[in-house]
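To whoever picks this up:

The nightly regression suite flagged Bifunctional DedA family/phosphatase PAP2 family protein as changed. Nothing in the input moved, so I suspect the structure step. Input below, exactly as stored in the fixture:
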Amino acid sequence: MNELLHTVLDWSSSNAYWLGSAIYITALLECLALVGLILPGVVLMFGLAVIAGSSSLGLPTVLLLAWLGGLTGDFLSYALGYRLQNKVPQLPILRSHPQWLASAEIHFERYGVLSLLIGRFIGPLRPILPLVAGMLSMPFVRFTLVSLFAAAGWSVVYTLPGWMVGAALELSPPQGFWWQASWVIGSLALCAALSIYSSLRGWRLSSLVSATTFGLALIALLFSWQHLSVFDLYLHDLSQLIRSSWLDHSMVVITRLGDLSTQLMVSFILCALLLLFKQFRALIFASSTLMTAAVSNYLLKLFFARTRPSVLLEPLQSFSFPSGHSASGFAFFLVLGVLASRQQPQRWRVIWLITALIPAICIAFSRVYLTAHWPTDIIAGGLLASVICSISLLLTQSRQPIPSLSKQNWAIISGMLLLALAVILSWNFPAALQKYAY
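Regenerated output under the current build:
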């Protein structure tokens, strides 16, 4: 097995052109209507990214090829749907499984542009939604703008983990790393599995299950973070292998989503709009989650008083554990995911929550990439927010569920939040970039 792996890696190092072509074609087929339904594209993309991480093919090139491939698949699917119109249900596979197309249509009609962003990360919907967008004659300019952003996020989520695994193969992990990594990853996976299972089964106390499992994992981490130094140091060094100028700029933009000023602004906008729409139960849930997460994280920072990695030219002065950016990011996007998933089938609730976690995970990763936090810091922040969100949801829904927001309400909320983020993230960006110089 080792000989085969070395043969593949040696070949990829000397044949970067063919490896890049394989990444582009696989991304295209994974996002192409009908083909993406039967192609194990996720596995192939991860495998190719692992090989690329161990070869001379850099991360920017891999991300660019995956983005262009996914974008091409979207355009071809849109063109097919626009061309066939009412004949789409007669296409192979869809003719035998009409429920797939019906589900995509319902999702598209209910959430519009947002469905293309969310559906990009949902396997069965990814290759069908662009087809439906063309079939329903969505304006091409609007479709293009949405696909540009959706494909970019998708390429990062589906290739970055594999590329980092491949890069890790080039480094020899220190003794004890795999034991510590297995403990941390295994605990997180068990918590996620129990939480998802209880939600899919429709358990009445699924929020209590989530709060208990994530709470136990958080307590274990609070008592053991000092013994996970090998895990922290190795992953910290590994994250620096992908440093580049353009990625530095991107990560600073992402990390500013979790800044205190940003979170205060978007939290105020969200709560104010919920009050305006007279969604009082949703307001109680959102405000209690966001405020409790912020206060709890601040108190834990003072209690543990952990120093940050001393890599930045001007090291940050506040304490490190848990990560405030991670806690606030997870809290805010979990709140959005919970509110968006109200009055939907259990499977869709889980999908919305998992999708909502993607930007939160990106914020958390940016903190390690920018050397502002250790890996255990961001994990603790995410667990803290998950526990608080679960408890808040459990208490808010003790008598009756939180009602769902209308499509018009969501249009206003998403528009206001995006406008606020655009203004905040563009404000004084050079100073923000200098803050994380190393």
